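In this section we walk through a basic example: taking a raw amino acid sequence and producing a predicted 3D structure, encoded as discrete structure tokens. The instruction is simple. Fold the sequence below.
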Amino acid sequence: MPPPDGWTAEDLDRIPGLPSHTELLDGSLVFVSPQTRFHARALRLLERALLEQAPGTLDVMSCHVMSRMTVRLDARNRPEPDVIVVRETANTGPDQTWYEPEDVLLAVEAVAADTRDRDREVKPRKYAVAGVAHFWRVEQDGDKGLPVVHVYELDPATKAYALTGIFHDRLKPAVPFDIDTDLTAIDRRPGS
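The resulting token sequence is shown next.
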């Protein structure tokens, strides 16, 4: 039974037997469905591109590309983006289970049928209000089955995201990282 005011961010680490990748949104536990093939492959492609390109492009600081980590947005919200890029200085130890939003340089969500509203509306709004500077939303192109990446940047005055680009076939944003990734390579093995 949930508490009368809902669960808190700290409860995620204390509730015994929670399924992996349980999120907290507005004090409610959200259980994640199994990934689709598209979801897994698109995220692997983006995570690999970020691992190979993003950390080396930062002059003043280095960063880490992570998956399966939550972001503690506030006391009642601790979502788990599909991929995040965090500042290297955000590391608080080997038992860390979440990051603060100010340490997140980029949050990536891949939209699935059962997460469409959360990934398109709820999570981006919450990330923006919490101050996560960059957000990418990954959708499946209905015709080709390839990833389409919608790139957003935070407007600090309005605490809302502004769309800075929609990328088909090739992801080549200028911010937050200068990377170049072939989105049609979703089904290629590394090195091929």
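Looking at the output, two observations stand out. The CA atoms of residues 148 and 168 lie 5 Å apart. The first helix runs from residue 37 to 57. In the next section we compare this with other chains.
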